[in-house]
Amino acid sequence: MTTAPWDIYADQLTHLGYGYPLWIPDPAPGAPSVEIGDVGWINEGEFLPLFNAFRGENEAQPRGAGPVDHVPLLLRDCTIVGPRDKISQPVLCSRSIQKVDVSGEISATASYSASANVSCAVNFHFECTAEAGALLVLGPTGRTQDILSKQRIMNYMDAHFDRWPELANDRLGLGLK
Predict the structure, then answer these.
(1) Which helix (H) or strand (E) holds 99?
(2) Bridge partners (DSSP) listed for residue 93
């Protein structure tokens, strides 16, 4: 078993069925957000887009260029649902994590000037019953946008995948396997 935290995190939470758990789910500050159609790789728990399959040759790509002879996947040919709420639980845990205790406190102060301060704190206490475990605390809910046209995606990958390593490794020097 690997000891990299992003690998442990993904290994421990994948069974929940919400896709591949990312250690770093948000893009770096200043980087564009991940869009439906982005094709990329995962580096140390972070998804990094290589190109967007829906964009044509005259449209901007995340790394400045698409694959040689890029043929875009036509958005109009795909059934897409969302964005929509997908994960409503505030805490998701691996099998080895048990919630032991939840406690909270509320405090309020008021002054003669008619102003008031109210604060609230919630504390969760967890216990890991194995050598590894992971948990995710969400707020707000987890959202998703999904392409339901799975066979269309598989056909597109079969037809065009052989050009993607050339973009990643020869043109961009990423050394992906």
Answers:
(1) strand 97-110
(2) 135
19-to-8, 53, 105, 132, 157 alpha-carbon distances in Å: 15, 20, 35, 20, 19
Tokens at residue 82, please?
Answer: 């969302």
What's the token pair of residue 124? 């969760």
- For residues 1 and 12, the answer to whether their CB atoms sit within 8 Å is no
Burial 38-71 (b: 16+ CB within 10 A, else e): bbbeeeebbbbbbbbbbbeeeeebbeeebbeebe
> Given pLDDT bands bounded at 50, 70 and 90, which one contains residue 124?
confident
Gap between the Cα atoms of 22 and 46, Å rounded: 6
Per-residue pLDDT of 148-170, as tens digits, reads: 999 999 999 999 999 999 999 99
d(CA 16, CA 91): 12
Q: Which is it for the CA torsion 167, 168, 173, 176, positive or negative?
A: negative
**Contact status, residue 44 vs residue 23, Cβ threshold 8 Å:** yes
